[in-house]
Amino acid sequence: MATIQRSNTKVANRLINYAEKRAEVREGVDCPAEYAKSQMKATRELWGKSDGIQAHHIIQSFKPGEVTPEMANEIGRELAKEIAKGHECVVYTHTDKDHIHNHIVMNSVNYENGSKYNASKEELYRIREVSDRLCKERGLSVVKEYSSPTRYTLAEKALLEKGEVSWKEEIRKVIDHEKTQAKTYDEFKHNLKENYGIDVLERGKNITFTHPDNDRKVRGSKLGNEYEKETIKNGFERQIERKTEPSQERGTTSLSDSGKQREGAGTARTPEGNERPQRFDEGLHKNEHGQVSSREIDLRHRDRQYQGDKQASNRSNAFDLDEARKSLKQQRANVAKGFNKFTERNEAEQQPSTTRNENNKQSNQRTNERNKEHDKDRNGEHQQEKSQQLERTVSKNINHGFER
């Protein structure tokens, strides 16, 4: 059973590095696997189309135990030859999971005419058809229908493997919850907007949900079959049909009284429109013997249970608020304590610095004084030497005069 997923990248080398690192078998189509990065890059530069999408990525997964790595790589290469004529491709076969799968890396630019690969939805269907045909020729199982209650993208699967939840998954969880709480399709849409801030846009057969935090939109069909417009509406219609089926209860009740009972139970809501009915016993009736029916007792029991849950929830919220205040107080104390330690350490670091500056200043003064005394001594010696020289010159001149 081979399944197909498709994506693209603006950095082809990064995708090739990932696929090549874990590959047990690697083979190229119109491109040697060991020179894939350089040859694909040369093709894109030759046609001047290095910007934008550089490569397309196709993941072909097989049912565990059906194929060997060599057979899987062979099927992947035949698939690449049919769907990507004129595009360099490399098929990397991985066995690091319980199922063998191919990573087919396709250069976005055609080396024959320079055109870029058209990654349309129709092309995706054609890839799946070719993959199914190649699998059937080898006696392998295929997927009969490419639809599932929930659809996950590659990015969502990566987040799920890390234990994280995507914004699409948050919308799915809210929808699943409100489908069990709302009574009608209109109430379902109202609750999504009022309780969670999720905008609902309907256009023809499509329905689009907008996440309140990032304003990102997603169609119900992208989330899965269970989240399409017709599926959700049909679910509420079947629910209404089940509720309107006649049921036998003890006692006798007129149709008009039962209509009033449903009307009273349906309208006893708070102004916000997102609370449960405040009183379930409004509009209740008694049977001809003056006894309350088992349905009314059940409704009253649910009312008391809801009130008890609401009070418990309030107490839980109050406890959480007290804990939050204590935590905030402790954080402030820690910040103040840390600031005091920083101030004391800063003063301690500055004090030795001041002492060193004073010592340096005094040392410079003593050095200047010694230099001045040394210069004074040198000047005195120089003056004394000049005086002695002058005396010798005068004495010499006098003696010379006596000789003459």
Tell me about this structure.
It is a single chain. A hairpin with a 6-residue loop joins strand 7 (206-210) and strand 8. The model is unreliable at 246-295 (pLDDT under 50). With 404 residues, the chain is an alpha+beta fold. The protein is flat and about 135 Å long. The chain has helices at residues 12-21, 36-46, 69-83, 121-137, 154-161, 167-181, 185-196, 220-223, 229-244, 255-267, 294-403; strands at residues 3-9, 23-29, 55-61, 89-94, 101-107, 199-203, 206-210, 217-219. The protein has 3 domains: 3-137, BirA Bifunctional Protein, domain 2 (2-Layer Sandwich), CATH 3.30.930; 154-245, no CATH class; 266-374. The longest helix is centred in the last third of the chain and has 110 residues, at 294-403. The strands form 2 sheets. The chain has a 5-stranded antiparallel β-sheet with strand order 1-3-5-4-2, sandwiched between helices. It has a 3-stranded antiparallel β-sheet with strand order 6-7-8.
